[in-house]
Design goal:
The structure is a single chain. By secondary structure, this protein is mainly α. The protein has a domain of 66 residues. The chain is built from three helices and no strands. Helix 1 runs antiparallel to helix 3. The longest helix is centred in the C-terminal third of the chain and has 32 residues. The protein is elongated.
C-alpha cells in the first residue's frame, strides 16, 4: 500500500498575489480560501477512507495515488495561505517595541 503522505504535485491553485494585475488578497479572502481548502481536505480524507475500507485502493491504484496528491497539495496550499495571512496580519498590526 502506498504511503499516506508523499511529496505533492503542484497544481493550478496558486496565490492570486503572483499575478501583478490582481489586487492583494484581503483577510476575508484568505479565510474563505483556507476554509474551502479545509473542506477539500476533509472530503478527500473521507474518500480515501472509503477507498481503503472497500479495497478500491488495491484495484484503482492510480486514482488512489491521485487522491493522496490532491490531499497533500491542499494541505500544503492551506499551510501557505495560513502563513501569508499571518504575515499580512503581522504587517498590519506590528507589535509595539518594549
Amino acid at each position: 500500500m502506498p504511503a499516506r503522505y508523499h511529496t505533492p504535485h503542484r497544481h493550478a491553485l496558486t496565490s492570486p498575489q503572483t499575478n501583478t494585475n490582481t489586487p492583494p488578497m484581503q483577510e476575508s479572502d484568505y479565510r474563505k480560501l483556507i476554509d474551502e481548502l479545509q473542506t477539500v481536505i476533509r472530503n478527500t480524507l473521507k474518500l480515501l477512507d472509503a477507498f481503503e475500507d472497500s479495497g478500491m485502493n488495491e484495484h484503482m491504484i492510480d486514482d488512489y495515488e491521485r487522491l493522496h496528491s490532491i490531499l497533500n497539495t491542499a494541505i500544503a496550499d492551506q499551510r501557505r495561505y495560513h502563513a501569508e495571512l499571518l504575515d499580512m496580519l503581522k504587517q498590519n498590526n506590528p507589535t509595539p517595541p518594549k
